[in-house]
Amino acid sequence: MTHAALIGDPVEHSVAPVLHTYLAGLSGTSFQYLKIRISRKDLGPSVAALRLLGFAGCNVTLPHKEDVGRHIDRLEEPALRCGAVNTIVFTPNESVGTNTDWIGIEKSLVFFGHPERAAGARAVILGSGGAARAAIYALQQLGYTKITVLYLEPPDAKTARLLGQSERLGIETRPYADLERAVEAGDLVCNMTSAGMAGMSRSPFDLSRLDGIDLAGKYFIDAVFNPVRTPLLQYFEQRGAVTVDGVWMTIFQGIPAFESWNSVKVRISKEQLYELHSVLVGEIDSHKK
Question: N or C: which end of the chain has fewer CB within 10 A?
Fold first, then answer.
């Protein structure tokens, strides 16, 4: 049996074990996936311990995505470009860190009809942390050359780093004061903040600010999966946008991680993807009871 784990703090909210159990059944793989809560001070020793115990690898969630790289032998290009690691693979000779969050964003959008090449299109990213960096990388793979990242003022340390790298990354960074102009000109809006998450603020801005903008036909993707239907997602949906919830991102980022640990290619139909989405939504809802 192959073993992998999710490491972070907290991890209790995660539905990843349900996701990977489904994928294991689909691929006929003997696989067990655990959730392990790990503090910042124990991060390095814990990664080393998982490797010594024979784990195939692990997923990394908050708050460790940007720090775990220093405890890994080699980082692949997506992790370097995104500035964060969400997947580690242990081989006999080394530990390898990569990032599949960007795949979750890219494949979710394409699954819902977004063009595979979006040359000339404009995108708006809400947020400036690790998820935003994954979105930048994903959108550039889709062909976006005009990407505006909106950030809260005053900028925190992570935002300040992104501002300093904006020219190298090929993006525009603007405060939320420019929200209306950016969204009106954009074809896609990505919520890469925690806004809407249980216990967090409903939105990074007053939604009424967008009331005068035609959102019909625009795409909206949300990184938040609990709740599945956030206030932002509901607002864009009601205004005619094509919306993609955070559960889809969870699914599409999880598949390549599962494949890398088990050396298999997951073959999953459209109907099975919808079934898996329904299973995960049910699991999320069960946590609220």
Answer: C
Q: Residue 137 has which token pair?
A: 């990388």
Task: Report residues of the chain scoring pLDDT below 50.
Answer: none
Number of domains in the chain: 2
CATH number of the domain bearing residue 258: 3.40.50.10860
Annotation marks residue 65 as catalytic? yes
Task: Judge contact between 129 and 158, C-beta under 8 A.
Answer: yes
What pLDDT is stored for residue 289 in this prediction?
60
Annotated catalytic residue within 35, 65, 107, 146: 65
pLDDT of residue 157: 87
Domain extent at residue 33 = 2-99+248-286
Long-range contacts of 193-198 (CB under 8 A, 24+ apart): 193/126, 193/127, 193/129, 193/131, 193/223, 194/224, 195/126, 195/224, 195/230, 195/232, 196/222, 196/224, 196/227, 196/230, 196/231, 196/232, 196/233, 197/224, 197/226, 197/227, 197/230, 198/13, 198/226, 198/227
